[in-house]
Write a structure and sequence with these properties.
Structural class: alpha/beta
Largest sheet: 9 strands, mixed
Shape: globular
Distance between the termini: 44 Å
Strand content: 15-25%
Number of helices: 12
Order of helices and strands: EEEHHHHEHEHEHEHEHEHEHEEEEH
Radius of gyration: 20 Å
Mean pLDDT: 96
Number of strands: 14
Length: 383
């Protein structure tokens, strides 16, 4: 089997763009992949165009060797743009291989450990009474793990961390008091805090209020997270920005993270994700995959979740309280479907997703960027 074409489609789906990649072969079998580097889709397309020059004519069944060649074939190896490009291609190669062999992708990874993949849901309302109402609604719909968004998450202009942590701590504490101990609750801070601010937030919460704190600070400096680790008992959910096993290395080896927020569309696809999963298993760390994209990302994440023993919950962004439009039925006529709060593990060949390519060709691309947040003094702060 030989690769005959690689096509990239950057398209607006719901509230954000997706970068979908199709790999075609001379046997008529094709595969779909997705890149996870939102807001920089064109940069990833450039990397894919470079890789295409030496991937045409190659055998996609050799996904592991092709991964190594894509990663190591330049002096400036790695980085988030290249890994996001490799991820999309690697996922497509596995889709092809599963279809060629007539087996689901999780069988290529060693077989399934579970028949369904539990998910966590996210509230769309800011901290307040509506946030608590949404958690109750999700519990009634079957979710046992819910992520709460910090105050100011949807701000377009000004974000003041100290104001946010005061309001968020108050309402998260109330949520736990009203909901009781059974529900698993986490808080997402989108790496907007400093070590001191994150520690202050944790210290404002009564012990046992939340079960995980997601991305409180930026990830570039593991020692900063170690400092924060010493100041709180709350488990950390980290890793959605990591683009390789090497970025996960200090966080796993130094026992900094408790949930690995691996993003299969950023970290380099199945080939790299399975290595991270095994490493995490050795340190009793469960995967809690990042899944903020479309049905291709969801399907890839479900197959990964099925194939590893150390798994907690998969992010789900299509729930009774959050409809972002990422799973457009017209563009994705065949996709994985929720059963309550879980995804049944698919048994058909490949990923189990089909894309209407003609609609994809006509879909628009929207040049967008995240809000450029500032403090009240005019200085730039993290989005």
């Amino acid at each position: 089997m030989k690769i005959t074409a690689i096509k990239s489609y950057p398209v607006r789906v719901g509230v954000r763009n997706q970068l979908l990649v199709k790999v075609e072969t001379d046997e008529g079998i094709y595969g779909w992949g997705e890149s996870g580097m939102s807001y920089r889709e064109k940069a990833v397309m450039g990397a894919i165009a470079h890789y295409t020059q030496f991937l045409l004519g190659r055998d996609p069944m050799n996904a592991g060797a092709l991964w190594q060649e894509m990663y190591r074939s330049q002096y400036f190896e790695g980085g988030r743009v290249l890994s996001a490009a490799i991820a999309a291609l690697d996922i497509a190669f596995h889709d092809i291989k599963g279809k060629a062999l007539g087996v689901p992708v999780h069988q290529l990874l060693g077989g399934r450990h579970r028949h369904s993949v539990p998910t966590f849901a996210t509230t769309s309302a800011p901290p307040g009474e509506e946030m608590i109402r949404q958690v109750r609604q999700l519990a009634e719909a079957g979710w046992t793990c819910v992520r709460l968004m910090a105050d100011g998450q949807e701000n377009e202009g000004i974000f003041e961390p100290r104001e946010s942590i005061a309001t968020t701590a108050d309402w998260v504490t109330r949520a736990r008091e009203e909901l009781g101990p059974e529900m698993v609750l986490g808080v997402e801070y989108h790496h907007r805090l400093t070590v001191a601010e994150a520690a202050s937030f944790c210290q404002k919460l009564p012990r046992g209020t939340i079960d995980f704190l997601e991305e409180p600070i930026r990830d570039e400096t593991p020692s900063a997270y170690e400092s924060l680790r010493r100041m709180t008992e709350i488990p950390f959910a980290i890793g959605e920005e990591f683009s390789s096993k090497w970025q996960f290395l200090p966080y796993v080896e130094r026992d900094i993270l408790q949930f690995a927020r691996i993003d299969i569309c950023n970290v380099g696809g199945f080939t790299e994700a399975m290595k991270v999963a095994g490493w995490a298993e050795a340190h009793y760390v469960d995967l809690m995959p990042h899944n903020p994209l479309g049905p291709v990302c969801t399907a890839a994440s479900v197959h990964l979740a099925a194939a590893v023993p150390n798994f907690a919950w998969l992010e789900c962004r299509s729930t009774p309280v959050e409809r972002l439009g990422f799973d457009d039925r017209a563009l994705f006529p065949v996709q994985l479907e929720l059963d309550g709060a879980s995804y049944p593990v698919p048994e058909g060949p490949g990923l189990g997703v089909e894309v209407d390519e003609e609609r994809l060709k006509a879909a628009p691309f929207d040049y967008t960027a995240p809000p450029m947040l500032r403090r009240r003094d005019g200085s730039v702060t993290n989005w």
